[in-house]
Write a structure and sequence with these properties.
Number of strands: 0
Distance between the termini: 30 Å
Number of domains: 1
Strand content: under 5%
């Protein structure tokens, strides 16, 4: 398998893992509050990655030498991203929130183009992003009416945009400034520290939580923890690869709502396929196939 094909394969695997998050989080939040749930989840995720991060001495040496960039990535990727995402998602209608969150590849492409000359916005890339966002809109509209009915919901839109921008910046810093840092150490550190911070935030915001949850809760939590550990580790490895452009890698995130919709049909009562949703899936799939098949060198 070529390096390009290998990168595409693992990018799809990571996005398929992330696609399980929406349904699982929706089920898990029946038992818990957002910050507490996310905090415990990421603490466990960081511990799952820890055995792959090498010896304790190497781990501590890496953190000591790179603590500034590793802390910045943690703040952007975990703390700011998930704090604003959870807060915004509680205010904004679900379908609208999904569309805004699904626009993250666009925000990444825009920010990356401003920060690095190799991340130019080509016509091919713009067309793929437009098709991708159109597909996300159709998928979301097929599952729930798109609407914005109050000023507080506009605030929620702003929060999700902040989350998207923070995630995009985090991806760019991983790609451009974390070269040479063991991606498993970076993943373990950012997930654990980010989770611990979210957990501490949950205490004054949500109060001390009871830990007597049913088995379903713990199974969901363990899956989400494993999923985050695997997906973030894979993504950090891919972002550090020579020649991988962060804006192009993030185009694969358009498949997250596609796979997420399929999972919702399978797991959530009342969810069923609609032609509008299927049309959105086909548009996203087609645009990604066209972009990554026989791609020539980028041109303005």
């Amino acid at each position: 398998m070529s390096r390009k094909a290998n990168t595409i394969f693992w990018a799809i695997i990571a996005c398929l893992l992330w696609s399980t998050a929406y349904s699982a989080i929706k089920l898990g939040l029946q038992y818990d509050k957002p910050f507490h749930f996310a905090g415990i989840r990421f603490i466990i995720s960081g511990l799952i990655v820890l055995p792959f991060a090498g010896s304790p001495l190497i781990y501590l040496k890496t953190v000591r030498e790179n603590w500034k960039i590793m802390s910045l990535i943690t703040i952007l990727q975990i703390i700011v991203n998930y704090s604003f995402f959870y807060l915004g998602l509680q205010i904004v209608p679900g379908a609208l929130g999904a569309v805004i969150a699904g626009a993250q590849p666009l925000i990444t492409a825009l920010i990356a183009s401003l920060m690095h000359e190799d991340e130019m916005l080509t016509r091919r890339k713009i067309a793929t992003i437009v098709c991708g966002i159109s597909g996300v809109v159709l998928i979301s509209a097929g599952r729930q009416v798109l609407k914005l009915s109050s000023a507080i919901e506009l605030l929620g839109v702003g929060m999700i945009l902040v989350a998207n921008s923070s995630l995009s910046l985090g991806n760019i810093f991983v790609s451009m400034r974390s070269k040479g840092i063991n991606p498993f150490i970076l993943s373990s550190f950012s997930l654990f520290l980010g989770g611990l911070t979210l957990y501490l935030i949950s205490i004054p915001v949500e109060g001390i939580r009871d830990v007597s949850y049913p088995l379903d809760y713990w199974l969901i939590l363990l899956w989400l923890s494993f999923m985050a550990a695997a997906a973030f580790s894979i993504w950090y490895i891919l972002l550090q690869r020579p020649g991988v452009r962060v804006s192009e890698l993030n185009l694969w995130k358009f498949i997250i709502p596609v796979a997420g919709a399929v999972l919702s049909w399978l797991l959530i009562p009342g969810e069923k396929p609609e032609w509008v949703t299927i049309s959105g899936m086909l548009i996203i799939t087609g645009s990604l196939v066209i972009f990554f098949t026989n791609r020539k060198e980028p041109h303005p």
